[in-house]
Amino acid sequence: MSTHNPVFIPGPTNIPEEIRKACDIPTLDHRSPAFARLFKPAVAGIRRVLAMDQGEIIILPSTGTGGWEAAITNTLSSGDKVLAPRFGMFSHRWIDLCQRHGLDVQIIETPWGQGAPLAEIEAALRADSAHEIKAVLATHNETATGVRSDIAGIRRALDAAGHPALLLVDGVSSIGSMPFDMAGWGVDIAVAGSQKGFMLPAGLAILGVSPKALNAMEKATLPRTFFDFRDMLAAYAAGGYPYTPAVGLIAGLAKAIEMLEDEGLENVYARHHRLAEATRRAVAAWGMRPCAATPELYSDTVTAVVVPEGCNGTDLVQLAASKYGVAFGVGLGEVAGKVFRIGHLGMLSDVMLLSGLATAEMCMADLGWDVQLGSGVAAAQEYLRNSAGVALARAA
Amino acid sequence: MSTHNPVFIPGPTNIPEEIRKACDIPTLDHRSPAFARLFKPAVAGIRRVLAMDQGEIIILPSTGTGGWEAAITNTLSSGDKVLAPRFGMFSHRWIDLCQRHGLDVQIIETPWGQGAPLAEIEAALRADSAHEIKAVLATHNETATGVRSDIAGIRRALDAAGHPALLLVDGVSSIGSMPFDMAGWGVDIAVAGSQKGFMLPAGLAILGVSPKALNAMEKATLPRTFFDFRDMLAAYAAGGYPYTPAVGLIAGLAKAIEMLEDEGLENVYARHHRLAEATRRAVAAWGMRPCAATPELYSDTVTAVVVPEGCNGTDLVQLAASKYGVAFGVGLGEVAGKVFRIGHLGMLSDVMLLSGLATAEMCMADLGWDVQLGSGVAAAQEYLRNSAGVALARAA
Amino acid sequence: MSTHNPVFIPGPTNIPEEIRKACDIPTLDHRSPAFARLFKPAVAGIRRVLAMDQGEIIILPSTGTGGWEAAITNTLSSGDKVLAPRFGMFSHRWIDLCQRHGLDVQIIETPWGQGAPLAEIEAALRADSAHEIKAVLATHNETATGVRSDIAGIRRALDAAGHPALLLVDGVSSIGSMPFDMAGWGVDIAVAGSQKGFMLPAGLAILGVSPKALNAMEKATLPRTFFDFRDMLAAYAAGGYPYTPAVGLIAGLAKAIEMLEDEGLENVYARHHRLAEATRRAVAAWGMRPCAATPELYSDTVTAVVVPEGCNGTDLVQLAASKYGVAFGVGLGEVAGKVFRIGHLGMLSDVMLLSGLATAEMCMADLGWDVQLGSGVAAAQEYLRNSAGVALARAA
Amino acid sequence: MSTHNPVFIPGPTNIPEEIRKACDIPTLDHRSPAFARLFKPAVAGIRRVLAMDQGEIIILPSTGTGGWEAAITNTLSSGDKVLAPRFGMFSHRWIDLCQRHGLDVQIIETPWGQGAPLAEIEAALRADSAHEIKAVLATHNETATGVRSDIAGIRRALDAAGHPALLLVDGVSSIGSMPFDMAGWGVDIAVAGSQKGFMLPAGLAILGVSPKALNAMEKATLPRTFFDFRDMLAAYAAGGYPYTPAVGLIAGLAKAIEMLEDEGLENVYARHHRLAEATRRAVAAWGMRPCAATPELYSDTVTAVVVPEGCNGTDLVQLAASKYGVAFGVGLGEVAGKVFRIGHLGMLSDVMLLSGLATAEMCMADLGWDVQLGSGVAAAQEYLRNSAGVALARAA
Questions:
Q1: Chain A residues whose beta carbon lies within 8 Å of the beta carbon of residue B365
Q2: Helix crossing, D151-161 with D118-127: angle to 10°?
Q3: Does the pLDDT value for residue B396 go beyond 70?
Q4: pLDDT, tens digit, for every residue of C351-370?
Q5: Which one has a higher pLDDT value, C396 or D367?
Q6: pLDDT tens digits along B369-394
Q7: Which residues contact C377 (CB under 8 A, 6 or more apart)?
Q8: Would you identify the CATH topology of the domain D264-386?
Q9: Structural domain boundaries of chain B?
Q10: Are B330 and C31 inside 8 Å of each other by CB?
Q11: Which of A169, A335, C203, D325 has the most crowded Cβ, counting Cβ within 10 A?
């Protein structure tokens, strides 16, 4: 029997019925006004989700990795210096990408489980009196460890140092699920993807670009064509696209924004927090802890659960898939085996989350881990039922 | 946010992705060979699911109620006597239908929570030495109380009494989910619907008709046209349908049978039993009991849970819907308020079931019932994880 | 290769994308308020499409044939006399249904290709001074011959004769596509189906019922349960349904009405007229004629094309299906072989229609009929391009 | 009313029902074996469609433009010389892309309407005795002019000149619709997209890469990460993907290949040729001619129709969209206004094509062009009905 179990990977997330239908459309001429009728509300909506005031939105038929590449190739030139803390697999990969494109990355090595180290960033910026650092890279939500970094704090560090570097932020696994304030935080480029908080299939890189970044674009010499913001902006101005867009995903994006705003962005964030907190209550009841070192670092979209000594998180993930048909995330890189990850973002209800927690518990028991069946579920139930006010589940 | 919570009503059941896609097709000429290519495998598959040897399959664009009406109008005449035990809302409704069509129903009143009373049936048949009783009506699975009756036992009663009455069986909420043996049990008409074990939307009444019932059809004078088996059989013979069929549902039915047979009917029945047993373990852990009086009566498709004195099952159902977006079944008729019903049939996985049990528990706590959060879930988890061999969940 | 050729059968019609999506929904508890939110607008919309003022709407999980049966079993009693003209296969079938339910049908035999004969109807009514005739049956649009009858004229005949008989109208292939005025014409029951003008899959019989018919319902003794209006009305009043409804189709019906009203019913009727007229221009260019005897009888939903002496319309239908993958309708009954039928109702654009006309022409040439390729297409093109004002095709 | 008119743009093409359903799937963990079960047959099928023997397939969540970029960044280094004829908008854009990535493009300017000039290519290669030219770029099917170039001829030119340059081919609008022989023609990289012959939505760039190109990859220094073949190949080898893949499109690609192979690639090519020839017959009947200069250049996927002096092709395209809801392609660049384009690739039947031709005729008449209604349709009908043997339309 095919099952309809939810997925608990930290993206791609469960796709709502309405979004599946919005994406699944007959062919539509992307040079026609009908396309513009889909595209414009999607762009306008993204501005609101990012809390942008000025600047431009770029939507590329690509993924988050493409978004990272677009962010740097459109603003930097070969040999430019960028400052980047590394504290997980995704911050690592963006750094690697920069290096492969010929940038000089000043890496601040940070323990996994920590977030972007504000003091060290500020110190590095202050030390760069020649302003050789052209950009600071920050991973808002490190998906590998379930750590949220303080982007506003990085902005304060930049301002305190009086440093003009661009602030480029990977918000792939945060935007649309956790508060993001592009204008307030002075973010120059925010990178999002379709397949996380926007609840779409993978296939779109979505970028908010500040006027300052647009200005940098004019001088940046890293080669790019597919990702070139200039072609995009010229085509948008003419109501079109420089090449064939992913029409269905753009239609779905417009729908996703409508759904997020119907729920209310504040309610969406509150729901994510509540489900994350329920997950953490379950983790505590299991006698385990999140990989994120301290509560202010806890991600509201993914929890990397540190498994007990002698246990292997990857075993749990494999057993959940093979025995129960449920997908969790494995530990990556430094924390491979040491954690398993529960994604709790996108379309998720109390009831769906409880099924994931119950599955994790069964796997633990199956693997002989020392856990009491029902314990995590009960802790989550208790929290969920007493905090339901903000986000009552509504029948479809 | 729209949620994708499973439903736990005892039908319509959760529709698998594959079946939704099979049903959702462009218009197809129902007088073309393309229709016959859909229809014939559906008919052939139904024969296997019913374990028929001889006789005919009738598929009507209707529902279970229409199936009941078709069963009697095609085999009986005004004033005919039928014997029928009444022990729940659905056995009651079929009796009511018979009376409205001018049949003389000899009702064996039976406590709700009991099944068809074999001894009383046999006694009534033996008493009917003139063979005025033309048919015995039996509800295989009484959806209101979660009681499975012993159809083989009724056949034995008929045979023991040497009585020639037809045996007409409502299998709407059993067929495709619990073992059914039309040939072995000597059933003359079996009535099924699309929206239960076949995992389709409502809209088809599906009937297996024995040669003996086909013979009765020739003499039956209750008026019917839409439901007339003769028109159906004549049209089928010509590769067609006497009026416009529900083409999409028939395409879906063919797919449903393919899915049931890919899983293996025995595995399907074992899965239903296992999920039902897990539910009953949870019920016991809550300190409650099924409405079905004894274990041999327990239904594998629906459990009517008797709620504690002073509690109201309907409150739980309403709260589950309004607060958690989950649908359970209310108590009907005599047991209104006294039970709530958990449907566990059709497409359902361990993981989906656990989410329903967890929801019921939260509602109980919310309503101030004396139940420990996680207790039912833990009992079900323990059972499920140790019995997973027969029905390993498979990722879609 | 699978093709996406439109169908040109006179129902089921091509299903719009939006309606397919509206129908294809996850399982929803039909006892929940969510169902009522779908059902009520559908009912309210049907009232507007039928131009009803008083009375009730009944929506049955059935087909047009079931609608016919419901219309008579809810208003008449065994032995009642009804008056009915017969001038095609569908008027014939309703008469046959009446006879099988024990009604005494006074048939006015009328040549196929003609419509309901007003003078003869009036004469029969006047002759019935005892008012034994309880109902007049009329087929608004005879799908077999492409003939529209004058229902207002039948009302005038009833009024002129001062006859109290009910007026029961089969509008299955007219309602939603051609003007219908239930209140103005004094129709007592109007029968529609989901699969014609409402552009849905088959599976719903839709009836408008006047207060006079509701009054007759109280006294009617023909047996019925599945089709019983009383159960339906009692359940509707409680926000529900007496048995499991076809939830998806009802959701689709609500969408269909939204689409019809977005286009504007007058525009919908004008579009049907325009496409029908284009078809008739093509027919004339081929040197053929409609089966309908005179222009005022021409149906705007289906044209039965009389084929030349020595030709067989069924050959064309079979060749179109086997060689070009296009479905037309065969001639039925008296006109079998003598006509082929082009359905031009429901979702149909200029462009789709032209593809059907072009296909018919190719088949004619393939069969050696004396027709000039492109001739019918050109006549239709000329008409369509000069009459596009009312119904500009709009890109999806 | 929404219409279901086919599109006649030269891509994205009409999407078959089966492929839409294959793409539209619930979220599936792309790190699970379930993903590999989708991905591997897609890759294997692409090898067959390209007629590859050795080498690798790369599938990127991108578009044809991304495929062009991937082809050069993975095989070339800054300052490398490439040879490229320019004879249309798409050959122009690839050249532009090369220049923006720092390549030194030796352009052979060729009149639009001509194909790749073999003699000039050979001469340029012979003149390059130092083998500074690292690659020859060729647009197999120039979508702007409807011209097919002779890729085998370019291979002969390379061989005749004894030149080791790579042969990089844009097959975006040919592969899957017209014969392609990667091994036989010695193509080093073939670039395809999902939205043309593969009948999918846009969103995948599909590349076949020869061993020689893989060898070049090791030394190429153009920066790339998102498009880096090395990351892809390493991830594939581990059964995965270096970042989130477009799972739905890959599932659809597997289905597309199944459909192409069920029809038979030779039959697919024959069908495209036949529909293209029917289009050209219509064009001739209108008194017009294809933009492609000579018959051996005629594309079987798109015809750019040269409009009469004083007429503007863009007017026709706009009128077809606004009045009839049908999409054709406008002329681009040098031929803007001078042509309109009829795409006849992907899922297309005789009947669908005829509707497009009929629409174009109506627009011509509406615009006052000197054309006889029905003339092009008749020419196409005559050809289609007499050549139906190879590709009988099959009902869905």
A1: 381-382, 385
A2: 30
A3: no
A4: 999 999 999 999 999 999 99
A5: D367
A6: 999 999 999 999 999 999 986 444 44
A7: C282, C354, C357, C358, C361, D358, D373, D374, D377, D378
A8: Aspartate Aminotransferase, domain 1 (3.90.1150)
A9: 17-261, 264-391
A10: yes
A11: C203
Q: D103 CA to chain A: closest CA distance, Å?
A: 11
Q: How confident is the model at residue D390 (pLDDT cuts 50, 70, 90)?
A: very low
Fold of B264-391: Aspartate Aminotransferase, domain 1 (3.90.1150)
With vertex at residue B183, the alpha carbon angle to CA B177 and CA B186, rounded to the nearest 5 degrees, is 105
- Considering only the beta carbons, identify the residue of A28, A32, A395 that sits closest to C34: A395
Any chain D CB within 8 A of the CB of B26? yes
Per-residue pLDDT of D21-70, as tens digits, reads 999 999 999 999 999 999 999 999 999 999 999 999 999 999 999 999 99
Collect all residues of chain C within an 8 Å Cβ-Cβ radius of residue D391: 1
Banded model confidence at residue D2, pLDDT cuts 50, 70, 90: low
pLDDT confidence bin for C239, thresholds 50/70/90 = confident
And the tokens for A212?
């300052």
Any binding-site annotation on B341?
yes
Other CB atoms within a 10 A radius of the CB of residue C6 amount to 30
Looking at residue B234, its pLDDT comes to 97
Is residue C215 less than 8 Å (CB to CB) from chain D?
A: no
D194 forms bridges with which residues in the sheet?
none
| Contact with chain B for residue C27, Cβ under 8 A | yes
Interface of D with C in 320-339 (CB under 8 A): 321-327
Smallest Cβ distance to D381: which of C263, C352, C361? Answer: C361
Q: What is the dihedral sign for C-alpha A110, A116, A117, A120?
A: positive
Question: Chain C contact for A29, CB < 8 A?
Answer: yes
Residue A177 confidence (pLDDT) above 80: yes
Per-residue pLDDT at D395 exceeds 70: no
Interface membership of A395 toward C (CB under 8 Å): yes
Nearest to B374 among A365, A377, A394 (CB): A377
Q: Does C66 lie at the interface with B, CB-CB under 8 angstroms?
A: yes
| Smallest Cα distance from C368 to chain B, Å | 24
Report the CATH architecture of A265-388.
Alpha-Beta Complex (3.90)
Confidence band of C394 (pLDDT split at 50, 70, 90): very low
Domain covering C265-391, topology: Aspartate Aminotransferase, domain 1 (3.90.1150)
Which among D193, D161, D178 is positioned nearest to D272, based on CA atoms?
Answer: D178
Phi/psi of residue B119, nearest 5 degrees:
-65, -45
**Dist. CA D45–CA D57, nearest whole Å:** 10
Phi/psi of residue A227, each to 5°?
-95, 10
Q: Do B225 and C101 touch (CB under 8 A)?
A: yes
Q: Which residue of A has its CA nearest to C25?
A: A17
Q: Looking at the domain covering A17-261, what would its CATH class be? A: alpha beta
Binary contact (D396, B17; C-beta < 8 A): no
Place of tokens 């040999």: A79
Residues forming a β-bridge with D109: D86
Q: Which residue in A17, A25, A28 is closest to C26 by CB distance?
A: A17
pLDDT at residue B262 above 80? yes
**Residues D146-171 pLDDT 10s:** 999 999 999 999 999 999 999 999 99
Closest Cβ opposite residue C351 in set D326, D381, D396: D326
pLDDT, mean over chain B: 96
